[in-house]
From TrEMBL:
Gene3D superfamilies: 1.10.150.130, Intergrase catalytic core (1.10.443.10)
Family: Belongs to the 'phage' integrase family.
Protein name in UniProt: Site-specific recombinase XerD
PROSITE patterns named among the record's database cross-references: TYR_RECOMBINASE
Taxonomic source organism: Sulfitobacter brevis
Length: 333
């Protein structure tokens, strides 16, 4: 064990030591010299352990443990299978552009789409950045990913919406479809929605699971009259705390039920996420400002909203187009 030294840094305490000729320094949270001594030993031992054994597999499982119970943890259990098969035994400092390109090449040969590969490598980058913030690794390598494919442009027209709403389906599927259309929410937010977050007095639905839970793509949205009537009927027949339920039990997936409804409606290439996209497109076509659409969608800022949906607005670039109408009559004074 090298000699560790406690010093002052940025108005507080720090610990530093030399490792292979390079000085390592870490800010401490301690407020007294006594506390700093104990914390300094913990910091050194944590760094020494991490440097010796922090493989991608170790970091991946630690990250999932911290995110336990969140939708991203479930998703990353699936994306982790190919990632850990390729990167699992490596440390962060052993990952470079060539290992990333080899992963992309192998997954492409397996018939995996570029968008899926992009997501998988993005999750690897997320884990490594988290590990750096947790001081479990010193350096985050650049994770090269294939170009992100353009988003699918499939959305439903009004006649297609009418067909889907009228298609035969179980009451839980019909309610889920109406909720997705009227709130522009992801299917995961709809299936997690509980009655305590449906406010009939204020006509609002809080799609956020909790004050500390996931917020991405979730917002507090008003309910329109059609959705209100559907929810009032569902509330009277409710057997559990969940809005969308089956036989008094919450539902984990509506994949098969939704697919059957879409097929009965004569629709192709339609997934639950298409309904979220459809809602945003129809708001844009109705001339709703991008700022309002962004809030409704639960976007953190309007940049994503504008990039994807601004072109559907009837006023999008119209002034620019008019400025280029060189054939129009001009008043001559």
């Amino acid at each position: 064990m090298p000699e560790i030294t406690i010093g002052r840094f940025r108005g507080g305490f720090c610990v530093y030591w030399k490792e292979q000729g390079k000085r390592r320094r870490y800010q401490l949270k301690a407020r007294s010299a006594k506390e700093a001594e104990a914390e300094a030993l913990d910091v050194y031992q944590r760094q020494a352990t991490a440097a010796a054994a922090a493989t991608v597999t170790d970091l991946w499982h630690l990250y999932l443990g911290e995110r336990s119970g969140r939708p991203v943890a479930m998703t990353m259990r699936y994306t982790g299978k190919p990632i850990l098969k390729h990167f699992g035994a490596l440390r962060a400092d052993q990952i470079d552009t060539q290992t990333c390109r080899a992963y992309t090449k192998n997954r492409t040969k397996e018939g995996v789409k570029p968008g899926t590969i992009w997501t998988e490598l993005g999750h690897l980058s997320t884990v490594l950045n988290w590990a750096k913030k947790q001081r479990r690794i010193e350096h985050v390598p650049h994770i090269e990913r294939p170009s992100k494919p353009a988003p699918k442009d499939r959305y439903l027209t009004q006649p297609e919406i009418d067909c889907l709403l009228a298609a035969p389906a179980g009451p839980h599927i019909k309610l889920a479809i109406r909720l997705m259309f009227s709130t522009a929410a992801r299917v995961s937010a709809i299936l997690e929605l509980t009655w305590d977050r449906v406010d009939f007095e204020r006509n609002q639905i809080d799609l956020r699971k909790s004050a500390t839970g996931p917020r991405k793509g979730r917002a507090v949205v008003p309910m329109n009259e059609g959705l209100r009537q559907a929810l009032l009927s569902a509330r009277q027949a409710a057997l559990s705390d969940h809005v969308v339920e089956w036989a008094g039990q919450p539902i984990k997936s509506i994949t098969r039920g939704f697919a059957s409804a879409a097929q009965a409606a004569g629709l192709r290439d339609v997934s639950p996420h298409v309904l979220r996209h459809t809602s945003a497109v129809h708001m844009a076509e109705a001339g709703i400002p991008m700022g309002e659409i962004s809030q409704f969608m639960g976007h953190s800022n309007t940049t994503v909203t504008e990039r994807v949906y601004a072109r559907f607005s009837p006023d999008h670039l119209r002034r620019a187009a008019q400025a280029l109408d060189f054939t129009r009559d001009k008043n001559v004074s």
